[in-house]
Design brief:
Elements lengths: L12 H21 L17 H23 L7
Length: 80
C-alpha cells in the first residue's frame, strides 16, 4: 500500500560538476588577490598594485561567476 516517491534532483551531475569547478575558480581568485600588505602601516608597499592582484585575480573571479551562471542555466541531459 505504501508508495515510494522517487526524489528528483534539481540539476544533473554535469551541472553540479560545473558549479563545483566555478566555486573552485572563485576561491582561487580570492586567494590570488590576498596578501601584499605591509607589516608597518606607515610604510607603503607597491606590491599591492601587482598584475596578479589588479588583473589576474578579478578576471579569474569573473570567469568563476560566469561558469556558475552557466551551470545554473545549463539544461540537464534527458534520459532515454
Amino acid at each position: 500500500m505504501s508508495k515510494i516517491k522517487q526524489k528528483k534532483i534539481l540539476f544533473g551531475v554535469r551541472n553540479y560538476k560545473f558549479l563545483m569547478f566555478s566555486i573552485l575558480l572563485i576561491t582561487l581568485g580570492f586567494i590570488l588577490m590576498s596578501g601584499g600588505g605591509s607589516d608597518d602601516p606607515n610604510v607603503f608597499n607597491p606590491e599591492i598594485f601587482s598584475f596578479r592582484r589588479i588583473r589576474l585575480a578579478p578576471t579569474v573571479i569573473l570567469i568563476g561567476f560566469s561558469m556558475a551562471i552557466y551551470a545554473i542555466l545549463l539544461a540537464p541531459k534527458k534520459s532515454k
